Task: inverse folding
């Protein structure tokens, strides 16, 4: 019986993943045309099926017959509840929201299924948070002070969350069923057809002969791959198996190698043109084109990666790691590698070009996939059956990579719906505003702490969804633009994957590096310190978000580059020579002043940097 179920599960996973991936490709191409609600209901149903087929209820009971039977029952319940809602939503909408008791109880069943899926696929933290929010309306009328709210019954909340667009089938799931899954499939196509190997060759060639070439290859490689993967932990798992052993061989300690990979993989989510799933959700919530998100995220992302590059270099100098003397695998010049990789460069350029010319991101990703396939045929000068097999594999892998994101989006819809009906979100925002006394910096600091705490243990998408509904409105009360407020919490949603004590990307890197997870986590936290500072800087200096004149933006970028170098010196404790404690503090001050746009702050930061440089030079002499 167990062997039969294992076989059924294996084939079902492959078939369902291909069907849902192909469905979304056909939908964006115009072959299949359905309403937004139909697409969202079908998307969630298929993702729940895939999750229950792939993730066990409890790890210690994984692969047992009991677990398989329970999972199969959950699959059938997911199909039944989704089909019922699919058959009812039009009647409910046409009647102005008239529901019956069966709608409520089926809705409640779906909510329970989503919570269980969140526990299995994302983690207990998200499940607990969503459960607390879901049950809040049941006892809120008995709570004191700011926690008080009008009470609601189970049926009313279940109806709200499943029969309207304010709950599970809201904006987050809508983004998952359009932008995210198409870009996931696009990334899977690039990976399946060999883009990862191409990116690694380019990164390896660019860094060959440099000090700590392996670590610098990791920075460039993870940047390139992170732009299309959108998952910090996933990026570590893919790139870390190549880069972490290289760094250890060069002389980095295991915890340092793991930390470097965790940080650069996390940074891949803030690097345009594809900034991970959360950025697409931000564009939808804020109501701006995704190209605007790309634009304002460019300079902070480049400064972050420059900071990591400086950290890697300074750590190598301090540790006595020498230049790379190892021969590369082949002696191909860079131009020839780029020429051979044209089949990946052309689709990528097409993607960016189409989005800049007003095409929707999911349309651009679809046409880029088509161009990738055509380029593959041209570059290989033959049309074979292998291309069909690879395409089917890419569609399946892309769909499967969206499973935890889709579930997180559906679970976050529970939070958004409850916040909307109870008004609790505005109360949290008001609480932060009141605690700050109206002082902007304190409000930002409280927002940062709240964002990091809420984001711990969650993937970036889930973290951002919670922060966008609970924390971001607090900044709006201070008169901050909606886009800046969401970008502020977006950064802290990203760095939650390297923030101890719960740091998902660091955990994966520690496993590959064979190092202590806490040591990797704290090292990654310090290596990525720039990412914790940048949101404050672009809040006070909008030039870093490309707002203002060209000269002001360029000056902010240049002084920002000096600033992140100073912060890297502070982190490693090295600048020409090992730094004393007061010198490290001075470099930290110089870095913050140089990062903050403004002539006065730049002059002060430059003066401090010059003083430390002169003192270090005298000490070295």
Result:
């Amino acid at each position: 019986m167990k062997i039969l179920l294992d076989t059924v599960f294996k084939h079902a996973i492959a078939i369902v993943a291909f069907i849902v991936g192909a469905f979304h490709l056909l939908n964006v191409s115009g072959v299949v045309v359905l309403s937004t609600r139909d697409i969202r209901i079908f998307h969630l149903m298929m993702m729940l099926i895939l999750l229950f087929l792939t993730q066990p209820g409890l790890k210690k009971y994984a692969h047992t017959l009991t677990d398989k039977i329970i999972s199969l029952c959950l699959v059938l319940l997911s199909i039944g509840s989704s089909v019922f809602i699919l058959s009812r939503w039009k009647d409910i909408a046409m009647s102005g929201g008239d529901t019956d008791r069966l709608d409520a109880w089926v809705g409640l069943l779906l909510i329970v299924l989503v919570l269980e899926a969140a526990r299995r696929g994302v983690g207990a933290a998200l499940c607990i948070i969503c459960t607390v929010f879901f049950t809040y309306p049941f006892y809120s009328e008995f709570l004191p002070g700011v926690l008080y709210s009008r009470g609601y019954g189970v049926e009313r909340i279940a109806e709200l969350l499943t029969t309207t667009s304010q709950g599970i089938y809201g904006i987050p799931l809508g983004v998952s069923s359009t932008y995210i899954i198409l870009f996931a499939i696009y990334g899977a196509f690039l990976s399946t057809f060999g883009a990862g190997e191409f990116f690694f060759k380019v990164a390896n060639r660019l860094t060959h002969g440099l000090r700590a070439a392996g670590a610098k290859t990791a920075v460039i490689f993870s940047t390139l791959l992170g732009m299309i993967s959108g998952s910090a932990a996933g990026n570590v798992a893919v790139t870390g198996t190549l880069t972490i052993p290289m760094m250890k061989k060069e002389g980095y300690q295991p915890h340092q190698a793991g930390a470097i990979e965790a940080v650069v993989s996390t940074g891949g989510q803030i690097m345009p043109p594809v900034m991970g799933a959360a950025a697409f959700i931000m564009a939808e919530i804020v109501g701006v084109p995704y190209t605007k998100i790309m634009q304002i995220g460019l300079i902070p992302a480049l400064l972050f990666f420059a900071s990591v590059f400086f950290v890697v270099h300074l750590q190598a100098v301090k540790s006595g790691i020498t230049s790379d003397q190892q021969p590369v695998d082949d002696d191909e010049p860079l131009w020839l590698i780029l020429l051979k990789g044209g089949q990946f460069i052309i689709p990528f350029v097409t993607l960016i070009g189409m989005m800049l010319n007003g095409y929707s991101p999911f349309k651009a990703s679809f046409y880029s996939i088509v161009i990738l396939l055509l380029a593959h045929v041209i570059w290989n000068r033959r049309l074979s059956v292998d291309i069909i097999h690879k395409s089917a594999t890419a569609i399946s892998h892309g769909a499967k990579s969206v499973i935890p994101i889709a579930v997180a989006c559906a679970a976050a819809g529970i939070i958004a719906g409850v916040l909307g009906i109870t008004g609790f979100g505005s109360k949290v925002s008001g609480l932060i505003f009141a605690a700050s006394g109206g002082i902007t910096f304190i409000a930002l600091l409280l927002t940062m702490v709240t964002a990091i705490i809420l984001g711990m243990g969650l993937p970036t998408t889930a973290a951002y969804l919670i922060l966008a509904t609970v924390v971001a409105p607090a900044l709006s009360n201070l008169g901050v633009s909606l886009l800046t407020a969401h970008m502020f919490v977006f950064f802290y949603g990203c760095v939650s994957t390297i923030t101890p004590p719960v740091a998902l990307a660091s955990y994966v890197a520690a496993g590959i590096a064979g190092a202590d997870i806490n040591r990797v986590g704290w090292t990654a936290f310090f290596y990525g310190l720039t990412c914790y500072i940048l949101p404050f800087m672009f809040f006070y200096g909008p030039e870093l978000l490309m707002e203002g004149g060209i000269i002001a933006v360029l000056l902010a970028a240049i002084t920002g580059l000096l600033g992140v170098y100073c912060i890297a010196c502070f982190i490693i404790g090295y600048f020409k020579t090992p730094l004393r404690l007061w010198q490290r503090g001075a470099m930290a001050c110089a870095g913050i002043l140089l990062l903050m746009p403004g002539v006065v702050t730049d002059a002060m930061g430059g003066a401090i940097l010059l003083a430390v440089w002169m003192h270090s030079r005298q000490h070295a002499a």
Observations:
- The beta strands are 574-575, 577-578.
- The radius of gyration is 25 Å.
